[in-house]
Design goal:
Helices cover 38% and strands 15% of the residues. The chain is α+β, with helices and mostly antiparallel strands and 291 residues long. The protein has one domain (61-291). The strands form two sheets. Strands 3-4-6-5-7-8-9 form a seven-stranded mixed beta sheet. A hairpin with a 6-residue loop joins strand 3 (69-74) and strand 4.
Amino acid sequence: MSRARRAALAAADEDTIDPYAAADHPPEAMHDRHLGVAPVGAPAVGACVSGTPYGAAMDPSLPKSLPPGGIVESYGRSGRLVWMSDGEVPDADTWWSRLYAERTRTGLYPVLLEYPEDMSAYKVGGDGPVDAAAYLSARWRPDAWPGFPRWPGLAAPAPAGADPDACAAEAATSVVDEGRATCLALVRAERGSDVPVALNWPGMTNRMTTADLSGVLRSWEDRFAARLVGLGHGDLFLSAAIPPSDLHQAHVLAAEHYLTCPDVFHHSFDDWENTYPAELLTLRQWHFWWD
């Protein structure tokens, strides 16, 4: 190569700026480069690169077809990734069901959200889920509702129930049809009970921590095939495919619900002391609301 040619190439290299090579980019930026976080000067989150949402173009785990949106958080050290729609999604329940069916392959759990701006408060979670039995028994008191002479233990499920995935899809449709949550997020989480910790969801902080909630949800997943469907400011929407085994166990499950979220009983039920346990024998959608 001639001396003139080498000089021309060197000048061209000097004029080409690698945004990650700049001195003001910390090592985390290099790591985030591979997780889909837009660097300084790159298209904004949710912007499109060649017609593709920026996150989808940068992170191979994201499905190729998504509503308009992008990665809002990608935590290099924890491996958490959160993709968020730009706003309300038409047919959000259909999108949720499709992404829910792909969760094992992608490692991303879909969740319906009430407002897109809720995501701005979410930061990477901390502690893992607690033991549900230990948490609930510690909160139980002899005068708690429903009344038991001693802590009854965890409620026993029926030996069989409905299809968990079908129940989850039905719950998603109900949540969307009622206009409770029509935005969409994808969270890197193995199961729905991990999502509150992954997002550090603040909706229940006046009663419990995310680790407490995650532990209770995980126990309900295991016993009643519960599935997380959506989150609001202070609302949590679940499906439940397996009922309690009998009316007595329904009273025990009602106690678990009350210890987890007493607010919803005091604000939403006129005669919950007499009706709620019986309803749990057939109820496939659980709604919790914290003040």
